[in-house]
Amino acid sequence: MLCEIDIKEKLGVDFRRYVILGACNPTLAYKSLQEELDIGLLLPCNVIVYEADDKSKSVISAVDAKAMLSVVGYNPRLDEVAIEVNM
């Protein structure tokens, strides 16, 4: 599943092209929730795409799922899921 927020379009503001993509794999989400209910705070995984200062280039950034696990506390059973998400 994918949701998209285009900042300029959504707010009608004068801003560089900037899109937030919320990506969720329901199967991996379910697997994660079975191990840690609070992981839902981090879903969906966000990816951002925006226009660089050099307008002929774009920047793409994504969350490192394994690093984000520290927000809800360490759970070694989630490491496998985080590695799969990062692929």
How many beta strands in the DSSP annotation? 4
Portion in strands: 25-35%
Helix tally equals 4
- N to C succession of SSEs: EHEHEEHH
What overall geometry do the principal axes of the alpha carbons give? elongated
Instruction: Find the CATH superfamily.
Output: TT1751-like domain
What is the mean predicted local confidence, pLDDT? Answer: 88
Q: What name is given to the CATH topology?
A: TATA-Binding Protein
Class computed from helices, strands and strand pairing: alpha+beta
> Which class in CATH terms?
Alpha Beta
Distance between the termini: 17 Å
Give a verbal description of the structure.
With 87 residues, the chain is an alpha+beta fold. It has a single domain, classed as TT1751-like domain (TATA-Binding Protein), CATH 3.30.310. Helix content is 31%, strand content 26%. The protein is built from four helices and four strands, in the order E-H-E-H-E-E-H-H. It has helices at 7-11, 26-35, 65-68, 79-86; strands spanning 2-6, 18-23, 45-51, 58-62. Strands 1-2-3-4 form a four-stranded antiparallel sheet. The longest helix has 10 residues, at 26-35. The two termini are 17 Å apart.
List the helices and strands and how they pair.
Elements: E1 2-6, H1 7-11, E2 18-23, H2 26-35, E3 45-51, E4 58-62, H3 65-68, H4 79-86
Antiparallel strand pairs: 1-2, 2-3, 3-4
What features would you highlight for this structure?
TATA-Binding Protein, 4 helices, alpha+beta
What can be said about this structure in brief?
With 87 residues, the protein is of the alpha+beta class. It is 31% helix and 26% strand. A hairpin with a 6-residue loop joins strand 3 and strand 4.
